[in-house]
């Protein structure tokens, strides 16, 4: 009989309490919040910007894997098996036979999706991992306010039947781009996804309202909620308690306090 100590490995997500619904997870991680604060600071420049994005997403993806991916029991001979018949490990691991698709929403999502893709290839069977690519752009009006988003092109490598579909996009501002991309996968890509998950560094109350309204089945993981333009009575209340008054977007649809346009700062391309 083998030791069953790791037959049921517990994992408890540390997250902030809120009123946005069960599919929203505001990850409570002081270390990651410290890194994110540095990333958003005015004096932080390349190459530190992209290194921080890589590190933040590596940890955020691991959080999602721990919390969302199914596991299976394995019995694996270790190198000690040549010395003793007891040299066998038995316990839970992440089920390697999972289909996973990570979606690069260019341009802010390019590096996060690549980090996600590389990490997944070390976690599950690489033949079951795929990276798709979508070119999207914000549509703005004469006052430079965002009025929507449009898809300029896409490279989608197959169906999503029974797959975990991940959208690693740093800034959940209006939710327009992500909502459009998710709708594309639900209506135009063959198969039914097992689970759709967004991975954001910063989200706004406006983003959460749109996503939970238009895609209530989607699971959201975010490191930070920014609602800096809310009226004073909001501050100090639990997130979502006064959701109708919470505001995180300025008139140009940029996040406050935020960190500037991540597509711009990550690519040194301010257009």
TrEMBL record:
Domain Phosphoribosyltransferase intervals: 32-231
This protein's name: Phosphoribosyltransferase domain-containing protein
Native source organism of the sequence: Corallococcus coralloides (strain ATCC 25202 / DSM 2259 / NBRC 100086 / M2) (Myxococcus coralloides)
